[in-house]
Amino acid sequence: MDASAWDERYSQSDLVWGVPPNAVLVEQATSLPRGCALDLACGEGRNALWLATRGWKVTGLDYSVVALDKAARVAAEAPRSVRERLDYRVADVTGADLGGEYNLVLMIYLHLAPTERLQVVNRAISALKPDGILMILGHDAVNPTQEVGGPQDPEIFYTPDDLVASVKGKLEVDVAERRYRETDAGTAIDALVVAHRPGLGSQENGA
Ligand SMILES: C[S@@+](CC[C@H](N)C(=O)[O-])C[C@H]1O[C@@H](n2cnc3c(N)ncnc32)[C@H](O)[C@@H]1O
């Protein structure tokens, strides 16, 4: 789907993904010290808003103007201190300058062709501070046989092993596994990888 197709989808209903944050993000990030986060393909901002509410400074990028309008509308209900920690920008993550110095980068249900995905993963890695964490979560490649919804183009699915291969030699992998999620249509399977950039002075940096 391109940006106009996403705009169309977001125009057809109120919040497509709801207000509560993704449960796996909550599980993985609740105990992290607050810092700066980058939410790639933030959609309507459910995850960015949750992080900002917990004291994170968050940049959310998405190429759907309609999604970001909704994200801004939801954020407008939050206290000023939370709003001030949120920065939503319209951007295509395959080409935008991601900047750097993030403690946490999220790619949650961002599905791209494999070559593009690898490019975005590499750029996400470059945007991490030492010890910064990359979390990738999305529809697993086994889903098309399960008929539980999600994207229909098999090329854009991935497995935990695919994700591990894309960060190998650059990040240390902390979690690589399948996650099971109940939906109205049945059990959906997600691929999850959480990995961190080796800290300054670690062996990986030659110390
Ligand atoms: C399934 S939604 C997930 C939204 C959000 N991460 C969440 O979990 O609520 C996928 C999002 O990816 C965005 N997206 C897809 N390709 C993109 C690209 N190349 N650049 C920026 N956003 C993109 C879409 O606009 C859409 O908002």
What's the architecture in CATH terms?
3-Layer(aba) Sandwich
Bound molecules: S-adenosylmethionine
Task: Compute the number of strand runs.
Answer: 7
Order of helices and strands: HHEHEHHEEHEHEE
Counting helices, strands and paired strands, the structural category is alpha/beta
Question: Number of helix segments?
Answer: 7
Q: What count of structural domains?
A: 1
User: Quick one: CATH superfamily?
Assistant: Vaccinia Virus protein VP39
Ranges where pLDDT stays below 50 over 5 or more residues in a row are none
Q: Looking at CATH, which topology would you report? A: Rossmann fold
Q: Give the radius of gyration.
A: 16 Å
User: What percent strand?
Assistant: 25-35%
What is the CATH domain class?
A: Alpha Beta
> Major sheet: order of its strands?
3-2-1-4-5-7-6
Mean pLDDT: 92
Query: How far is it from the N-terminal to the C-terminal residue, by CA?
Result: 45 Å
Q: What is the helix fraction of residues, given as a range?
A: 25-40%
Largest beta sheet, briefly?
7 strands, mixed
* Global geometry: globular
3D architecture notes:
The protein is α/β, with parallel strands linked by helices. The chain is 29% helix and 28% strand. The protein contains 7 helices and 7 strands, in the order H-H-E-H-E-H-H-E-E-H-E-H-E-E. Strands 3-2-1-4-5-7-6 form a 7-stranded mixed sheet, with helices on both faces. The radius of gyration is 16 Å and the shape is globular. The protein starts with a helix and ends in an 11-residue tail after the last strand. The site of S-adenosylmethionine (SAM) has 18 residues, from helix 3. The site of S-adenosylmethionine has 18 residues, from helix 3.
